[in-house]
Design a protein that fits this description.
Elements (H helix, E strand, L loop, with lengths): L1 H10 L9 E3 L3 H10 L4 E3 L7 E4 L6 H11 L3 E4 L6 H8 L4 E6 L9 E7 L5 H11 L3 E5 L5 H9 L1 H18 L4 H21 L4 H8 L5 H11 L2 H22 L1
Parallel strand pairs: 1-2, 3-4, 4-5, 6-7
Antiparallel strand pairs: 5-6
Helix pairs in contact: 6-11, 7-8
């Protein structure tokens, strides 16, 4: 996620390579990052700066916070999954304005859905800064931290639900007689087109679904099967299960 965010910032012109630095303790990872992001300083100790982005695995978060704290950064944006604001603030110190964020994997193609929540010392300016950073990789929604687990269940895990739908559509096309490559092309373009129609038309999902569902037609027959198999209910339960698990993991951290 850190690499996706850095790449998005550079592509968007939010910062020049010479204005960014990546702190990485592992020599092999430093070499790979330096090769990937030409002109970006890849260092093994904190450098002078006003702000830092914390993008590490949850198990590495405490040690990374110690390094960030030693650098004296005034504000920190954390994209560490499952680590709550209170924990981050305890590790970083009361002088640090902390903003917690939850992007999702489409950040890799600049199409992330991110949520942000501010800590006790975070001001409107700090939140605006975090939103500006994350806007380089997609859209950003501001939430109270109590709703971050719900967002994790919906958008954080959401790409996996749609990947599963894509797999199922491809297999269904093959079952109906299509070549697998053809089924894949049609399924993926259908998902892409439906997503663009949802975001660009201004119409609600319900209206768009109704527009393509002729009485007694093929789509109506298909939707009847999906409703009989409780697909809608399965998605509801899946999002709630993911949200509950996010809450459990956050509490354990």
């Amino acid at each position: 996620m850190g690499s996706a965010l850095l790449g998005g910032l550079l592509r968007a012109g939010w910062a020049a390579p010479g204005e960014c630095a990546v702190l990485e303790r592992r020599p092999e990872a430093r070499s790979a990052l330096a090769a990937r992001f030409a002109g970006v300083a890849v260092v093994e100790a904190p450098v002078a700066a006003e702000a830092a982005v914390l993008a590490v695995k949850p198990d590495d978060a405490r040690g990374a916070c110690a390094l960030v704290r030693s650098g004296g950064y005034r504000r920190v944006l954390s994209v560490v999954a499952g680590v709550r604001l209170a924990t981050l603030e305890a590790w970083l110190g009361p002088q640090t304005a902390v903003v917690r964020a939850m992007p999702n994997t489409p950040a890799l193609v600049g199409a992330s859905a991110s949520v942000v929540a501010g800590g006790s010392a975070a001001t409107e300016e700090d939140l605006a800064w975090a939103e500006e950073v994350l806007s380089a990789i997609g859209v950003v929604v501001r939430l109270d931290e109590r709703l971050v687990d719900a967002a994790t269940g919906l958008s954080g895990s959401g790409p996996a639900y749609l990947f599963l739908v894509a797999e199922a559509l491809i297999d269904a096309g093959v079952l109906a007689g299509l070549d697998r490559d053809v089924a894949r092309t049609l399924a993926l373009q259908t998902i892409l087109g439906a997503g663009r129609l949802l975001t660009e038309s201004g119409e609600s999902p319900e209206a768009l679904r109704a527009a393509v569902t002729s009485p007694g037609g093929t789509t109506a027959a298909a939707l009847r099967v999906l409703e009989e198999r409780s697909v809608r209910s399965a998605f509801l339960e899946a999002v709630l299960a993911a949200a509950r698990r996010a809450e459990e993991l956050g509490g354990a951290g």
